Amino acid sequence: MSSKGIRIEGLKKRYGGGDTAVDALKDVAMDVAPGEVVGLIGPSGSGKSTLLKCLGAVIDPTAGRMTLGDEVIYDDGWKVRDLRALRRDRIGFVFQAPYLIPFLDVTDNVALLPMLAGVPNAEARAQALELLTALDVQHRARAMPAQLSGGEQQRVAIARGLVNRPPVILADEPTAPLDSERAMAVIRILNDMACKFETAVIVVTHDEKIIPTFKRIYHIRDGVTHEEAGEGRGFA
Amino acid sequence: MISLAGRDILHAWGKFVFTGIGLGLLIGVTLTMAGVYRGMVDDGRALLDNSGADLWVVQKDTLGPYAESSSVNDDVYRSLLAMPGIAQAVNVTYLTMQVRRGDSDVRAMVVGIAPGELGTPGWPPYLVAGRQITRGHYEAVADIASGFRVGDRLTIRRNHYVVVGLTRRMVSSSGDPMVFIPLKDAQEAQFLKDNDAIWQSRRRTGANPAFNRPGVPDLLDAVIASQSTNAFVNAVLVTIKPGHAPDEVARSVGRWKRLTAYTRLQMEDILVGKLIATSARQIGMFLVILAVVSAAIVAFIIYTLTMDKIREIAVLKLIGTRNRTIAAMIMQQALALGLIGFVVGKITATFAAPLFPKYVLLVPFDSIAGFFAVLAICVLASVIAIRMALRVDPAEAIGG
Predict the structure, then answer these.
(1) Smallest CA–CA distance from A204 into chain B, residue
(2) Are B112 and B243 part of one and the same domain?
(3) Which domains does chain A have, with CATH numbers?
(4) CA separation for the pair B10, B187 (Å, rounded)
(5) Could you read off the pLDDT of B248-267 as tens digits, one per residue?
(6) CB-CB: which of B315, B321, B393 is closest to A116?
(7) Per the record's keyword annotation, is Membrane included, yes or no (chain B) (predicted)?
(8) Which of B9, B11, B313, B318 to mutate to test the interface with A (most CBs of A within 10 A)?
(9) Minimum Cα–Cα distance from A205: chain B residue
(10) Which pLDDT value is given to residue A89?
(11) Cβ distance B78 to B294 under 8 Å?
């Protein structure tokens, strides 16, 4: 498999200790290449959210190894000192709900990340507009989030996840609140952006409509992942 | 970097402005309370300034004439005038009472002033209308705050007076407007009784064999005459000749005349430190309570506003926003709220102060101190919300 993108080997996560210890992740292995969109599916309580939080450097895994690009970021302990900067600069997040900042307009919602990274405001806004144009929401650039439709909000959220050109995007049920047409549009956008920006995309989903679009799927059950080929039907 | 606090305020400006107005009214009350205290102190100082005296000679071992009753013989001023260093010595009486005008009455401090001219201690130093008292009886000069006008007829005890002049900022230490009348009238007013009481008093004296001796026919008349006149005043106002120290003259008066003399500083200390000290503590307690209530309101508002943004804060933390950026956002909002509140409060206090019945003095120092106190309170009040925001787990932004 690829040496870029994100690779996970033997990832474990245990909550608590002693008799009450719960092994949420027992043995997780994933390898997602740049430009690839994979699905991560599993029943409730299988460990999807825990895996997403570990990948997002929000919680600490118990053991295992994670490689982002050529850099080992976790090997039985974090190898990166500033996890906040890691999340800001190298991991993009797309949530089930868009969670846009309600008091910032569309452009600034997207430009906020590069601004936080120290990019001058004008430059950050230019980057944001470029992405908004790519996602076909540039005409709502000055609108407030409350003025957008659900699909527009999700596209803005995708733009926010992509704006710092992260090598990996973690998408947590990004199509859950959308109808079939909009759900397919969002997955198409994620695929396009993954190709365009050489980004590895992991999509956690329950959505039966979009599962056939993945070429590879990771099933997670009882904290263990199993890889299988998807239908990879593409988009109509 | 854009101002997250500023954007949030602009987004929910209505909520901020109305909350700020509410807080501002509270701050306005606080500033006004401070102004009430300053007004009391200034009233006390105005009372001393307007008396035109360097020394107040009062009954021995009393704090009179403003803080305690004081009584000295009305001929003491003559012997004081003979002492080295004393330029003027003038009798004065003070009596706080209800002064009637027609069917209504006004609480006022009636000041009995000795005959003289403008510049005589005890006299109102300036007029805003009319003229000074020129007749020996039944003329009055009133402070404009009393509501009297030139030509009004007042009733003090059984006597009627015509207001011939009006003055301004001549008030007692408790803020009552002054009414100046001739000294003799004021001395009479202090002990003037109604006709029935006088008749009863004469009857009792006449029934007393010690005063009504058949062998001394004029004794009873002499005793009754002494009972119906008042030979006392409350204080003697003294001015010092150039080159003499008020402290030395005051000590000399105390030593040789068996009276107590206070300098301007000592009298100010009595007025501010003793007479209005309890009121000052009372107002101080109010200020503390208002500050605590303001802090609680700001803390509650900022806490509520932060609680409303928990999900956004989790997202901000997840996407890599530093804690200090989030803390700064909350603190800036608290400070903005305080700023709006202070501006509203200052405007409220400025417009409300003249409406109060007593003098409310808003001094720039109190405004500046109040401004920084509001900012400090807002910073402290935002601490709870900041602590809560910093405890938000960025994982909350991810489902599951």
Answers:
(1) B399
(2) yes
(3) 33-61+83-229 (3.40.50.300)
(4) 68
(5) 999 999 888 789 999 999 99
(6) B321
(7) yes
(8) B318
(9) B399
(10) 85
(11) no
